Amino acid sequence: MKIVLVHPNYHSGGAEIAGTWPPSWAPYLAGHARSAGFDDITFIDAMTDDLDDEALALRLEALQPDLVGVTAITPSIYAAEAVLDTVRRVCPAAVTVLGGVHATFMFKQVLSEAPWIDVIVRGEGEEIFVALLRTVAEGRWPRDREQIKGIAYLDGDRIVATQAAATVKNLDAIDPDWAILDWSKYLYTPLGVRVAIPNMARGCPFTCSFCSQWKFWRDYRVRDPKRVADEIERLVNEHNVGFFILADEEPTINRKKFKEFCEELIARGLPDRVKWGINTRVTDIMRDKDLLPLYRRAGLVHVSLGTEAAAQLKLDQFNKETRVADNKEAIRLLREADIFTEAQFIVGLDNETAETLEETFQMAWDWQPDLANWSMYTPWPFTPLYQELRDKVEVFDFSKYNFVTPIMAPAAMTRGELLDGVMRNYRRFYSRKALFHYPWRGRGFRRRYLLGCLYAFLKAGFNRTFYDLGKAGYWGPQTKKSVDFHFDTSRQIAPAQMEDWDAAADRSARAAERRAAVRAQGKERAAERMMACGGGQQQMPESLALEVNGPSEP
C-alpha cells in the first residue's frame, strides 16, 4: 500500500520569521504507521518547497498513491482542501484523508465546502490513522468505515461522525520517523542551525478561553523523560539538529518529569551540542525559580511566556488564571538565570484602543523581556471566547486566521489603524533593543543569540514577509488607511456547521442553567440548615453551638 503525506503550501508572516520549521506531524504519523507494518510512505513538504498546485500534481501523478493524508491548522485549511482536490484530479482511486485541529472541530464545515474529501480524522491522529490504513489495505473501505472510531465522512448528502476515539494512552509507543524529513531544509535563523520540534507531553489542564489545544488533546499525558532524551540524542547524532523547541503547550506542568528530562540531557552531555526553547506559563516559572539554573545548564536558552495581556481585565477574559504582576516577576527570574525571555501579547479584540496598545508597549518595556510579540487575536471558531464574540465576527475567510491579520474590527479603530499601532510597538521596542541592549548586554552566546534574533526580524522586514506586510500593502503610518487584507467575503459558515454550533450553544446554556439551579438549591439548603441550627432571631445555647460548630479559631 502506497501512502503519501503532504504538508500544504501556506505562508504567513508569523512564526516563519524565526526559521523554516519541520512539520512534526508527519514523522509522528509515519513512525506509528511503520510500526504497524506500513512501510511505503512518502512525505511531500509543499510549504517548505513552495510547490504550486501543478508542481504538486506532477509529484502525485508520478507516485500514484493508494492514500494521501494532509493536515491543516485553521489558516491552512483551504490549501489542504486544494491538495486533496488535486489528488482527486490526478489520482482518482486514492483515498483522501484530512486531519488536524481545524478539521477535528469543523468537520461539518470542511465536508460542506470540500465534499471530495473521503475521510476526516478527528483528534489525535496516530491510532485512528493506523485503523484507517488497515481498513483500506484489507479492502474493507468504504464498506466498514462506520466501524472506525474518530472519523467523519459524507454518506451521500449526510455528514456522519463515528464515536470519538480514545486518546493515545501510551505516548512512548509512538516512535517518530524523523528520517522522513529532508533536514537540510529546516534551519533556525537566529543560530543558523538545524531545528526540530519534538513532543514531550500532550494536553493542558488549563482552559484558556482563546485556545483550543486543551479541547483537542483532551487529557494531559507525559512521556518517559529518558525516552524523550533518547529522541533528542538521535536528532542530534543522526540529523545534526542544533536547536529544538518542545511542541508541548506547557512542558513544565509536571515539574518532576521536566526536571528528570533536564538531568538526563546533562548526563548525556547534550547541552554542549544542542540548545532548546519552550513555551510555558509564568506561574510555572515562579514555582520553579530554584530550578531555573538547572534548566539553563540543560541547554534551555529561550522561554516564550504566554503573558497575553498587560491588563488584568483581559487576563481574566482569557481565563489565564494569572496576574499582571506575575508576568514581570517571571521575566525577572528568567533573566537572572540567563535564559532569554519572549513576552507574548494578544491584541485586536473588539475593545482594543490606541491607549490599550500603548499600555502593552509600556508594560513590555517595563518588564524588559529580550523579545516581545504582539499577535492579533484570532477567533478560532471552536473556542469558548469565539462563542462569546460570535456576533462581532465579520470575517469567515479562515486563510486570514493567522495571528497577523486583524480579524476583529475594534469599535474605536479601523483594522489599518490597529495594524499600524502594532507596527509602531514593534518599531519602538526593537529599535531601542538594537541600539541600547543587544550589542552591549552580555557576551559570547548571549550576544550572538540576540543579534541572531534581530537579524531574523530584519530579514523578514526587508523581504516584506513580516506580519504579511507585503501582501497587505503596509509601508508605514502613511498607508494605514489604504491597507488591504484581501478578505474573501464569499466565505461563510456552512448551514450544517451553524446548526452544530447552535445545538452546542443550547446544550451549554442548559448546562449553565442546571449549574446555577444546583448552586441556588445548595445555598437554599445551607440557609435552611443554618435556621435549623439556630440561625433565626434566637441564639443557640453556647454548649450546643460548640457541639455543632466546634471551637472557634483563637
Automatic annotation (TrEMBL):
The keyword ATP-binding does not apply. One of its GO terms (molecular function) is catalytic activity. It comes from Pannonibacter tanglangensis. Keywords: Iron, Iron-sulfur, Metal-binding, S-adenosyl-L-methionine. This is Magnesium-protoporphyrin IX monomethyl ester anaerobic oxidative cyclase. CDD domains: Radical_SAM, radical_SAM_B12_BD. The gene is bchE. Its cofactor is [4Fe-4S] cluster. InterPro entries: BchE-like, Cobalamin-bd, Elp3/MiaA/NifB-like_rSAM, Methyltransferase_Class_B, rSAM, rSAM_horseshoe, rSAM_sf. GO terms for cellular component: cytosol. PROSITE patterns: B12_BINDING, RADICAL_SAM.
